[in-house]
Specification:
single chain; 805 residues; alpha+beta; 5-stranded antiparallel beta sheet; 23 helices; 27 strands
Length: 805
């Protein structure tokens, strides 16, 4: 009996020590400062506390009077509050106070103080959080608001602020009273007074514009208002939306100015213009009958030609230039040698000469307008021109030439964007289908791999049988990898992305690739060592480089070749970014270029289609480039490809660059996967998976109650909520989803650990799972070890939150 009691005490002591160790590790890793004060002196400070107080070393903090770190103005109040905690009058004290660092510099902190049980006597645990930056920001905000008020009240324009729904007026500057003739207080009391002042003829237009344009930032209206004294004034009113970090509009700000004087001047100018026009018409009629009518007509014609942007030629049938008007350049020849020259001039390209000569003949012969397009060499690239030729006499024509380079470029750009849109829609449709298929496959593979794992444990040592079971498991693993690739290109697979430079991942992939490709292929790598970091999954970046480089090597098979890999930071402007389907900004560009056989246009259009391949049977799955496309899109990047048959292929990939490096924290894992008889409520709508999970959990040391109906499982739980230690449920089930089941269970047992299993990659994110109070998601297909890990993680998290009890 005494041995049993000794064993019990040892287990209790061990549990206590483990709990104290966990507490100490949590305190040491805490980003907040933690101090323990006893008898007025600091007897403990965690690393964050030493850093916050600027002690440099723990010895400079521990042992010193706690008041040494308090601003003198705070001594009396803080001493009084600490005594209240020690006397039991307060359980916890929350307050904001001024502390002093070791060097005497002040800092603002947020303080939480509670009684700390210590065998040596009463002590207080103090948690400090530095709020100096927040205090500084609040002071800056108040100063900014005051400056804004002073500016708004000193300008002649009316500055106003409203919420998006216009149900109230947040602010209107005093200029409103001068322009509108109404008081600001009336407008605050009734915001619709603004609309009532708008002239009835303008009111509907202004209402429509305010409702449709203010949220877009395109609201810029001119309208009339009627003052209380009956006077009308013209107003120009502009508005702009303010958005929060999520992109939601939370304010509309505007500026209204009195443009009555400008409108009056414009009206007077229009009246003078009409009078002047009438006089010109009258004078023109008089001049039409004068002896100089021909010269005047010719002058007007010349003025008209000089006013239009097109180049106008008068050309004889034999190709001689008789006259021209080219106020904006873009002529066939230098302007000082056009008249008298001929289309046979060597400076005119032969193909342009032939096309113009033929068009002139057809225009003179038929009497119809003849149109043609041609290209002229110019600095910076060829200029695209459009010519319209019409007969103007028995042996001459007038040719109007317009520069259409910009229009042609716009048409090419539009066609490229339409092609990108079609590709995006196609990939999205295929991805949706693939994601659904992958979900069903994952359920099937979970059963196959799970039973293979159980069976292998039962037949271990049986020659022949164990090998066959192992082959079943290997085939299932290959199917699992294939499903993972399908989920990757459909962008439904969850991956861990961290802040990282691309250089090491590229270098590692090229080292592996060097051993796998023929020595006849030269690898030329240029990776900038000072690349800005990106938010990426290192494994997926490795996969992108390996897939593209392997494809390049295959394209150069059978002969010498060169694989060139370049990676550097690049700033994309609006035009280049729009062409790639990105926003302007800083990117890391990865370029993989080969000198292989290249691809024809019909192949280039389909390279990202899943299962499309130009390789022979058993030489490829057709998923390589689809996976690359899915990875790049999941990283919010873009991929471009150029290829010419016989010349090679170039892939350009853009990853958004981060402004600065961010550390990644990894939690150590130290625990077993086996249970201690805990009771698991297991729910999945697939009967085969329910039976498998029951067998796996029992073999791991758990008691199991299993259901194929989530409704029945909920009823079972509600009948005995305290009998279960953990809930294992599938996410997607008919009648009641796993998320809904979890919410209902947690409403009764908030402390119950829940493990959610899913065959999809992104039906529920880790963030959404945490919002519901769930433990990390378990992705199908999973091994028995992964299942045990997930159960133990969930149980350990709940024990940690409850202080180890």
């Amino acid at each position: 009996m005494s041995d049993h009691r000794s064993d019990g005490r040892r287990r209790s002591d061990d549990a206590l020590r483990q709990s104290e160790d966990r507490y100490r590790r949590l305190v040491d890793l805490s980003p907040d400062a933690v101090l323990i004060v006893q008898a007025g002196r600091v007897i403990f400070a965690n690393p964050a506390g030493v850093r916050l107080l600027g002690g440099g070393d723990n010895a400079n903090v521990v042992g010193r009077p706690a008041l040494d770190f308090l601003h003198p103005d705070e001594h009396r109040v803080v001493t009084m509050r600490m005594n209240e905690v020690l006397d039991g009058e307060r359980s916890t004290v929350f307050q904001e106070r001024r502390y002093l660092r070791f060097d005497g510099t002040p800092l603002d902190v947020e303080v939480a103080a509670t009684l700390y049980p210590d065998p040596a006597g009463p002590a207080i645990q103090i948690i400090l959080r530095d709020i100096t930056a927040r205090k500084t920001a609040e002071a800056a905000s108040r100063e900014s608001e005051e400056r804004f008020r002073q500016i708004a009240e000193s300008i002649d324009e009316v500055f106003w602020i409203t919420p998006p729904d216009k149900d109230r007026m947040i602010y209107v500057s005093p200029a409103y009273e001068q322009i509108w003739g109404r008081s600001c207080s009336e407008l605050y009391a009734n915001p619709r007074n603004w609309l009532a002042a708008v002239h009835p003829d303008d009111r509907d237009r202004v209402i429509h514009a305010a409702m449709t344009k203010q949220a877009e930032g395109t609201y810029d209206e001119e309208y009339r208002i009627v003052r209380p004294d009956g006077a009308e004034r013209w107003i120009r009113d502009r508005a702009f939306p303010l958005r929060d970090d999520a992109g939601t509009i939370y304010r509309v700000v505007g500026l209204a100015e009195d443009i009555t004087a400008r409108k009056t001047v414009e009206s007077e100018i229009r009246a003078l213009s009409e009078q002047l026009e009438a006089r010109v018409v009258e004078r023109t009629v008089q001049l039409r009958d004068a002896n100089e009518a021909l010269r005047k007509a010719d002058s007007r014609q010349r003025a008209l030609l000089n006013a239009i942007p097109d180049v106008v030629f008068r050309i004889h049938r034999d190709g001689t230039f008789l006259d021209f008007s080219a106020p904006h350049g873009n002529t066939l020849l230098p302007p000082d040698r056009i008249i008298g020259s001929n289309l046979a001039d060597p400076a005119i390209p032969a193909e342009v000469r032939a096309a113009l000569t033929s068009a002139i003949d057809r225009a003179i012969t038929s009497g119809l307008v003849v149109s043609l397009e041609y290209a002229l060499p110019a600095t910076g690239g060829a200029r695209q021109c459009e010519a319209r030729i019409v007969r103007s006499g028995p042996e001459e024509v007038v040719a109007t030439v317009r520069d259409i380079t910009a229009r042609k470029s716009a048409e090419v750009h539009r066609e490229r964007l339409e092609q990108q849109l079609r590709q995006s829609q196609k990939m999205e449709a295929i991805g949706t289908l693939a994601g659904g298929i992958a979900h069903d496959f994952n359920n099937i593979l979970t059963a196959i791999l799970g039973y293979a794992e159980l069976l292998r444990a039962q037949v271990r040592g049986q020659s022949g049988v164990e090998e066959r079971v192992t082959e079943i498991a290997k085939a299932g693993a290959r199917a699992k990898d294939l499903v993972a690739q399908i989920l990757t290109f459909s962008r439904r697979q969850e991956h861990t992305r961290t802040t990282m430079p691309l250089g090491p991942a590229i270098d590692e992939a090229l080292k592996l690739l060097r051993a796998a490709i023929p020595a006849s292929i030269e690898i030329d790598a240029e990776v900038d060592p000072n690349l800005p970091p990106v938010l990426a999954d290192a494994t997926q970046i490795h996969q992108v480089v390996m897939n593209l480089a392997a494809n390049a090597a295959a394209a150069m098979a059978g002969g010498p070749g060169r694989l060139r890999v370049r990676c550097a930071a690049i700033e994309l402007d609006d035009a280049v970014a729009a062409d790639a389907g990105l926003a302007a900004g800083l990117y890391v560009r990865l370029v993989i270029e080969d000198t292989g056989c290249g691809m024809p246009p019909e192949v280039l259009e389909r390279i990202f289609d899943p299962f499309f391949t130009t390789k022979g049977p058993r030489e490829g799955t057709g998923l390589g480039l689809s996976v690359v496309h899915g990875i790049v899109k999941a990283h919010e990047g873009a991929i471009q490809v150029e290829s010419r048959v016989g010349e090679g292929t170039v892939f350009r990939i853009y990853f958004p660059a981060l402004p600065e490096r961010q550390p990644v924290r990894v939690r150590p894992r130290t625990r077993t996967t086996e249970g201690q008889g805990e009771h698991v409520l297991c729910v999945d709508d697939e009967p085969a998976l329910v039976e498998l999970l029951r067998d796996q959990l029992i073999s791991l040391g758990y008691r199991v109650t299993a259901h194929v109906s989530p409704v029945e499982a909920l009823a079972d739980f509600l009948g005995r909520p305290l009998d279960f230690d953990v809930l294992l449920t599938d996410l997607t089930m008919p009648g009641l989803s796993g998320a809904d089941l979890a919410e209902k269970v947690l409403a009764v047992r908030p402390d119950l650990p829940i493990v959610m299993a899913t065959g999809y990659g992104r039906v529920m994110s880790e963030e959404r799972a945490r919002e519901l109070g769930l433990r990390p998601l378990l992705y199908k297909p999973f091994t028995m070890v992964a299942l045990g890990d997930a159960i133990q993680d969930a149980l350990a998290s709940v024990r940690a939150e409850s202080g180890g009890n």
